[in-house]
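Narrative progress, year one. The postdoctoral researcher (J.K.) led the effort to move from monomer predictions toward full complexes, under supervision of the PI. The following entry was the first complex the group processed end to end, covering 336 residues in total.
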Amino acid sequence: MEVALIGAVLALILSLHPSSELVVVLPAADGHVGTVVVERGAEVLVLNRAYAASRIRAEGGPVAEQLSGDEVQRTFRGTLGALPAQPMSFLLYFVTGTDNLTEESRAELGRMLEHLRTRQAPDIVVIGHTDTVGALESNDELSLQRAERVKADLVSQGIAADRIRAAGRGEREPIVPTADGVDEPRNRRVEINVR
Amino acid sequence: MRWTIALLAAAFAAAAFANDVGQIKTVKGTVHVERDGQRLAAKPGMGVRQSDTLVTGADGAVGMTFLDNSRVATGPGSVLEIERYNFNSTTHAGEFDASLKQGSIAVVSGKMVKQKPGSMRVRTPYSVMGVRGTEFVVRLD
């Protein structure tokens, strides 16, 4: 009885005070491997290969280990499974002087909506832009109108309005820099950032 | 008049998001956010703020996306404090300090680390990790 109690107390203390640390660097979706530097006091270990690991036990410094992808998946399945989807950006283009999407971009809007429906609690920012045709002030207005129009399209398709912010940047941020008064289809756009 | 309304609307939107540095996207099992001495049940779509502590139960896991597009998840039995977070969306300069007190974490770094390697740090009772790029996991046993 007493032994069981002491055991339970010990287990509790151990669970509250971790006795080892494992750090592993993973390859990104595109295969790129980054770098993590593990420091304990003066001891430093640099991890920069796929599944390179650092293990620290009790009083020691970081010790290098090499794990496999399978081992990492097994050990961290519950944690990795909770990572949110990667943020994404989309571009939609407009018919000159209007807030009407080009035909191609209407199709792209449909694909974007399908994607949005697969995301949990999407957080959407729509930023409208214009080319340099027309006055600065009217382009400010037109860029916001484009963003609001896309927002309205998303809301009409069932995306919650309070998850979407719309803003206009006028002709200030062209993708293709041009002189004033130039009709440039690639600058007549909204950028949609989804987190 | 139209502009006044647009500006007011923008100000309101900004106020609602002003203190949020990220957002909870995935919740599994029991997850709480400790904020200003209160214990809030975590839900997808809920904002995350500087000084928040995220606590997951034995069956829990939570995933968050931050303003610089960095992503962080903690697994079962974890305690994670967001000690400091700031990010300038124009220059991409920022600082992200998080403290893992128990459990496990998965990190995919974002724009601030791309702009300045080392601007994100994760502390544990054992070590300090400087993040110079992309993905890693940590587990305390």
